Amino acid sequence: MPAQSAEVVRLEKLSKHYVEGGQLRPILDAADATFCTGELVAIRGRSGTGKSTLLNLIAGIDEPDSGRIFVDGQCVTDLSQRRRTEFRRDHIGFVFQFFNLIPTLTVYENVALPAELAGGAHARAVTTRALQLLDEVGLAARRDSFPDKLSGGEQQRVAIARALVCDPRLVLADEPTGNLDEANSKLVMDLLDRVTRRDGRSLLIVTHSRRVAALADRVFNITHGHLEPDAG
Ligand SMILES: Nc1ncnc2c1ncn2[C@@H]1O[C@H](COP(=O)(O)OP(=O)(O)O)[C@@H](O)[C@H]1O
Ligand SMILES: [Mg+2]
User: Fold this and answer.
1) What CATH number does residue 182 fall under?
2) Rounded distance, CA 161 to CA 130, Å?
3) 52 lines ligand 1 (CB under 6 A)
4) Which of 17, 44, 52, 63, when mutated, tests ligand 1's pocket best, judged by the most ligand atoms within 8 Å of its CB?
5) Rounded CA separation 124/129 (Å)
6) Is residue 1 part of a domain?
7) What domain count does the chain have?
8) Is residue 49 part of a domain?
9) Among the atoms of ligand 1, which is closest to the Cα of residue 47?
10) How confident is the model at residue 212, as a pLDDT?
11) What is the domain extent for residue 130?
12) Which atom of ligand 1 is nearest to the CA of 206?
């Protein structure tokens, strides 16, 4: 981690448990970590180890039992649910394994939606910004298509454009290539890498893929509730 890098995410003693069969099951157990501006961090771990839970906590979609999460210097765990939602919209882009595009909206409308919901400067700039992003992900010609007319790889590229429309400092991606073939995985990863790090954004990516992890500046594992640097 370069010493001069500003931190974009800090986790302090982050804990989360679920109740399973009447028993408390620790998912995260006092996890500490810091991720820096411009960094690509990969998080690996077996299925069910808490990777999606961690991303949802950082995004403020889920709440920890204890501990604190700072994003861009803001302690998101101190915010009300409403303020957390607003903060997420302005600071965080989210890319999902199954794309989560809205099937009744066109490609352009899907990308534009978060900016329109945000209102203000984002909404005023939405047409230019959405078209610029669609161009960047190579899908400007498909702007009026509906998601079901696109391949999985194309849908994920639309989802990446959507995640960037409010110009977030942090992009969280939960197994973004998990549902794609090898050629499309490579396209999507190259794109994610380019549109995040190039613009000084940070990318936190959950992945099973060794190839994806190999692109990362740092790799962490979640094992038994602990977030630890990958031993290789
Ligand atoms: N809302 C929930 N209630 C109870 N258990 C949950 C809930 N969400 C996730 N879990 C459990 O927490 C564990 C971690 O889930 P998850 O973060 O989705 O893992 P991963 O993304 O690493 O596969 C799993 O065992 C899962 O069944
Ligand atoms: Mg998961």
Assistant:
1) 3.40.50.300
2) 7
3) yes
4) 52
5) 10
6) no
7) 1
8) yes
9) 23
10) 86
11) 7-229
12) 21
